[in-house]
Amino acid sequence: MSYNLLKGKRGIIFGALDENSIAWKTAEKVFEQGGKFVLTNAPIAMRMGKIKELAEKTGSEIIPADATSVEDLENLVAKSMEILGGKLDFVLHSIGMSVNVRKGNHYTDMNYDFTTKGWDVSAVSFHKTMQTLYKKDAMNEWGSIVALTYIAAQRVFPDYNDMADNKAYLESIARSFGYFFGKDKKVRVNTISQSPTPTTAGQGVKGFDAFISYAEKMSPLGNATADECADYTLTLFSDLTKKVTLQNLFHDGGFSNVGVSQEVMEAFIEK
Ligand SMILES: NC(=O)c1ccc[n+]([C@@H]2O[C@H](COP(=O)([O-])OP(=O)(O)OC[C@H]3O[C@@H](n4cnc5c(N)ncnc54)[C@H](O)[C@@H]3O)[C@@H](O)[C@H]2O)c1
């Protein structure tokens, strides 16, 4: 249903790969709420993914950018303002990748070149994006920047591997840069800590199916879907949340505050 929550707002959406991507669902919903945006992804994802389909559906243009390349980001931000006709009101960073996870390297046996690549793509790219926006003075006052994260930044989930460290780094960047973006430009910066979600990135994590069922049983409201995550993101892009900043916001059906649930207890009760 459209409330025209984002009417007249302009932005950039990173990370839509296919229809399961959280960024894909967000783009569809931002469009529904009257927002205009440029879609972007890594050049390699352009070839693999279906982003053109999404662009046609939402009347958006695509600008390829490797989010680890400052040059690509500068081009992306400058062109987006040109295409959309002014400064930006919202940016979604929906990017994550660990080469150690992809290659099946255990946390105790990491390849550090892969580790470096992983934090560059998953965390420092967020700093690079914000620094580019900040230097180009590309955000309107009361604009909103959101990145996606996972609770493994705070608690141990052994198979999440070095992505846990990458997410802790990402969340810290959100706070540190968010301070300056707030003070100097009145722009808010937050992370959404989302339930495990069946997407390409999610399913790359070892034992993902068990992971998602466990979280479902632990969460009083059940796991949050990609669609629901998109809905939550809309509120953060809207003018209804103008003073929310520097926060890591759990969107997880309550998982983060549960010690144990009855369903999980029952699995351990001797019959
Ligand atoms: N799926 C989950 O269980 C889950 C849970 C919590 C948080 N998240 C986070 O949500 C975000 C979106 O992931 P998703 O689950 O929608 O999966 P996804 O695989 O659909 O999206 C990940 C995106 O990152 C992009 N990407 C990778 N390297 C890039 C680069 N160098 N430059 C630009 N883009 C690049 C990919 O092309 C892809 O579009 C990620 O930050 C992920 O860690 C996912």
What does this structure look like?
The structure is a single chain. This protein is an alpha/beta fold and 271 residues long. The chain has a single domain, classed as NAD(P)-binding Rossmann-like Domain (Rossmann fold), CATH 3.40.50. The chain has helices at residues 22-32, 43-48, 51-58, 70-84, 99-103, 112-135, 163-185, 200-203, 208-218, 226-237, 262-266, and strands spanning 10-14, 36-40, 61-62, 88-93, 139-149, 188-194, 248-251. A 7-stranded parallel sheet has the order 3-2-1-4-5-6-7, with helices on both faces. Helix 1 links the parallel strand 1 (10-14) and strand 2 (36-40). Helix 1 (22-32) crosses helix 10 (226-237), helix 4 (70-84) runs parallel beside helix 6 (112-135) and helix 6 (112-135) runs parallel beside helix 7. It is globular and about 65 Å long. The chain starts with 9 loop residues before the first strand and ends in a 5-residue tail after the last helix. Bound molecules: nicotinamide-adenine-dinucleotide (NAD). Residues 14-15, 17, 21-23, 41-42, 45, 66-68, 94-97, 121, 148-150, 194, 196-197, 199-202 line the site of nicotinamide-adenine-dinucleotide.
